Each structure stands twice: as C-alpha cells, then as structure tokens.
C-alpha cells in the first residue's frame, strides 16, 4: 500500500544485530522476527536484555545522525565496554576489553516507492564502533543509513511528501525520571518527533505541551485536529475501559474518562496506568508529529521501531496478557522489540516471537560482514519455531521456559509419570489375558486415569484413553453400569 508518495509498510525494520565487546557480550548475534511485528526478549537478570535494547537504540539512531534535533541520535559510551574477570594468582581483576574495542553491527531494511509506484526494499548493513576509551563513536560504516535519513530530512525541509519512521526507546526509569521543562518553538518542525526519542527515560512533557496546545487551538478556532484523534484512538485501544482522553482547559490537566463514568487526571492514575498511558500517548503523538499528513490514521499507518524495557512494569497480570496485542492493534506498522519477566506476557505470544537468552534460542548463524548486505540478508536465520506459548499454561511457562521450580507442580508431574508407567505395565499385562482378567485390568486403568479426568490435564487424560483403546481395553463394565 502506498500513501502520499511513500510506502506504508516495512519502511524500516531490523533483522539482525551483532554485539562485540558490548556490555556482557563477547561476540554474539541475534535475529529478530520479520514475519511478526513483535519480538520479546526473556531471560534471567543480567542475561543482557537491557544491553540488547541499548545497542539497538544506538543502531537505530544511525538513521538520525544528520537530523538537527536535540538529543536524537545515541552514541556508544565508554562505560559500555565489556569487562573481563582476569585471575592472576589469587587475585581477580576487572579489565576493560579495549584491544578490539566495542563493535555493533546491524542488518535491516528500508523501503521506499519508486517513480512507477513500485516498492523498493533496500537492505542495509551498518556498524558503529568505539575503539578506545578516549575516542568517539565512529560513523564511517553507517554512511548509507545516515544518508537515507538525511534525504528524508531534506524532503521535509523542502515540503515534499515523505513518510518518516517512528524511532523510540522506553527504559525502566521511564516512570520516575523528571526532566526539566521543554521549550518548544512555534510552529514546530515535523522532525521534533525525534526529540529525545532514544532517551530511555520517558518524557511526557513533550507530548503534554503538544497535545494541550492543539486542544486549546481547537477550542479557539472551533476546529477538530485529526492528529489528536489519532492519539485518542491509540490510547483507547491500549488502556482498558478508556472512553475518552482529553486536556481539561480549566484544570490544565490531561484527563482520562473510563467506561464506568470515573474521571482521573494523569497524575492521579496508578503507576501501571500512568506508565502505559505515557508510552502509548508518546508513540502516537510522535507518529502524528512526524506524519501529520496521515491525519487520524497517523498511529496506524506510521511504521518504525519501538523498544520497551520491561513492558510489564507495574501492570496487573490481566493487563499483561493483553498489552502486546493491544500495541499490535494500535500501531500495526511498528516493529516492537521488548523485554519482560512476565509469564503472562509470554503466554500472549505466538510462535517465533521470543528470544530466550537463557537457552540461546534465536542466536543467528555466522555471516560474513561486508558491504553486500543483500547476500547477508539471505543468510540471516529466522526466529526458531519454538513451541506456541499461547497454547501453554502459565505453570508450563514459569517452570519450563523461565526455569522457576514449582514444588507442588513438580510433585504432580512426578505422579503423572508414575501413573503413565503403571498404565503401560497394565496394558502389557493385557496382551495374553483372559476376558475375566481384562475386566479386572480395565478397572485398574479406570482407577489410574480417574484423578486426571477433571483436573485440567485434558490432553494427558485423552492420551491415556487413546492408549487403552488401541490395546482393546475400553471402559470396564462396572464403570459403564455406574
């Protein structure tokens, strides 16, 4: 689909990331889901979830290197070098690994529309490095993606129609971090939508000023702004039971109205509501500022990449189960790469949408790093076909995926194992049994399987029943007569 001379799908997407001497990673590659717009990082503390998101923010910022926007692009910091533990005699020292320096590289695609209205998808391979403690982050190997960003910026300056991708990062400090007040010039450039976009500390003041200014202008001019409706629609899609979202001119507050008639100011909402409302409103408002030509469809038609660390932060379990799909609906063209510790988030995911840092799942194969990105794209591994998490119980996910032992469940599984073993022993005994002996064996099978018929272990119970039927041992007559 094309709109305003630009494609509305997959304008920007990251396929693969390589980290070398960055934080805890020696030399590791990850591939991201290209068939879905969601990839979720899971793993124990200190497995590198936040490090991956920070690295992605640096690589995404390469597109913004030539944008004249305050604090848009992000660079590698010297404190992000990998620290190795070196044992000399009885002493362990911590040594920064500057010999090879920090190296980050990415494979991704940018899409655009040719003069004949066909979509061209350009593969890009770019890298950023910090080679010494005194040096600066290099950009020489990021020239192509920086040029693509610069060309988009020039089109904006010349008043040409161009669809700008949203780029944003929300870290774990987003709820409490207080920034100084923001002074905005009037009118703003479209590129203000990139201001502070890769600062992991959310700053809802930027959204607040923009939203309140347009609300007041709408009242003064008796005019409705479509871009405000884009934000409201996104908020109502993601915030449970939200009926309306507006700026109260008298109270000078952002207000949220719920379906039960209750009304809250933004500051009086719970941490969970404030946290998610700030993220959703900020994404939608950035989409609206970057692409005002899309009107009330700005949130649904703007593509890009959004990073969220600990997406489950302060959310009720019921909301955790729904938030990923809500974000999909509100921003269908955005690639979300997020981290979580929540089994409810994991349970809401489909096949191939998880990178498990504990198991090493979704690590990419070796590839030759060169300028021919199209060849490298062909070698990029797709996310492995992991089990469908949406079909698994919370207990399965907690114990088998997240590695948390549940004693009561472990005892139940042990009981199921013992029953299955005894079940097969009985089936073997039936091979040469008389009819009378078979009836006795059927009763034994009934007794063994009965505890699982109503316990929620439907698949296990069905499996036992199929095995006995295959052996010619249906329900016992005694059981049937009851």
Short précis:
The protein is α/β, with parallel strands linked by helices and 482 residues long.
Keywords for this entry:
disordered C terminus, 482 residues, 14 helices, Rossmann fold, alpha/beta, ATP binding
Give your account of this protein's structure.
- InterPro entries: ATPase_AAA_core (IPR003959), Bact_Antivir_Def_Nuclease (IPR051396), P-loop_NTPase (IPR027417), Rad50/SbcC_AAA (IPR038729).
- One of its GO terms (molecular function) is ATP hydrolysis activity.
- This is AAA family ATPase.
- Pfam families: AAA_21, AAA_23.
- The protein has 14 helices and 16 strands.
- Strand 12 (253-258) and strand 13 form a beta hairpin.
- The chain has 2 domains: 2-200 and 298-401, Rossmann fold (3-Layer(aba) Sandwich), CATH 3.40.50.300; 407-481, no CATH class.
- The strands form 5 sheets. It has a 5-stranded parallel beta sheet, with helices on both faces. It has a 4-stranded antiparallel beta sheet with strand order 4-3-8-9, sandwiched between helices.
- Helix 3 (204-221) packs across helix 5 and helix 11 packs antiparallel against helix 12.
- Residues 1-9, 176-180, 361-385 and 477-482 have low confidence and may be disordered.
- Helix content is 37%, strand content 20%.
- It starts with a strand and ends with a helix.
- With 482 residues, the protein is an alpha/beta fold.
